[in-house]
Amino acid sequence: MNFASQLQAAKEKDDTAKGGAIQKAEVKGVEAKSTTAFAATLKAANSAEAKLPPKLPTLPNKQEVEIGEDMELGPVDNWSFSALKTFENCQWAIKLQRVDKIPQQDGEAAVRGSLIHDGCEEWVRFNREHLPADNKTKFEVFNTEFERLRQSFREHRLLMEENWGIRQDWSPCNWNPKKPEENDPELWGKAKLDAFEIVATPLHKDDDGQVVFGEDNKLYLHRGDDVLEWDSLDLEERQRYSLTAKIIDYKTGRKFKNEMKHRDQGLSYALHAMHRYPDINTFHVEFWYLDQGEKMQMLFNRRQLVILLRMYHNRAMKMTTCKDFMPNPNAFSCQYCPYGANVNRKGVAYGVGVCEYDHYRGIDDADI
User: Fold this and answer.
1) Region Disordered: what ranges (predicted)?
2) pLDDT for position 346
3) Looking at the domain assignment, is residue 296 inside a domain?
């Protein structure tokens, strides 16, 4: 007997105890109808509870994502994270940069950032004696981390300043900014990581192999005197190791108010890495703020990245299929635009001042 039937029986028993037949006759047209409706509602509720939707199936660790390859590309037919952020901030700015190819003027901060990035790479490669410290950097906070990078480089577990390209289906391809003629004809996306570290943990005590990068940047398994290409191993052999990647990006600018942008950047790097190294299951992303002596860390697994991939793909697709670039002039978008006319406190312009839609143009310069 279900709950509704028990409730009905209890009510009838109570009615009988209070004078039963007379009360039943009085409520036959009103209360009995109400009781029947109430019981029907409970019965429907019980039935609905019994038919709860099944649990969603768990996504496999490596789920292939179907990404369309038939996009009709526009004049800006490839993207990088920085270009995508420029496009989303103001489409007209990316037109000036990538279509009209108007050169930008590097500011002091950009020049300093490039010098420090290059110096960090050279130090990790044992090509210079000291890290590129100045009166703003706090390298002492990162001494242990940089020493670890050196050790990983010595053990062939670290890649630096690699140029990663992808096609529209996110399959890895060649991208060489210094020799564009060597680029893959289907190059669609680009990424350049400061440091990419691989950590392989054996899952069995009797395994003593090491997973390293070869000269071709592919993974290899060193085991005794044997050097085996990772992709040539069978699935059972590869599953004897848990592969984790650490993606590191050096920052010389401020952290405050840039957290969301940098997290977005970290996601784009992890998505690139996921497709380039399909056996890596966990991705640690770290931003080292060298001037503040702080870190920001993120963690992704492959399942999370599969879910987030479609969102990122659609954003990049919007940029690379755009044909009508709309300006977005406002105080925020134009503040540091490399093509605008805004100046800092010292009167030095952030941009070259060629944008006709610039929010900061003087009234005498505006074409009205």
Assistant:
1) 1-20
2) 87
3) yes
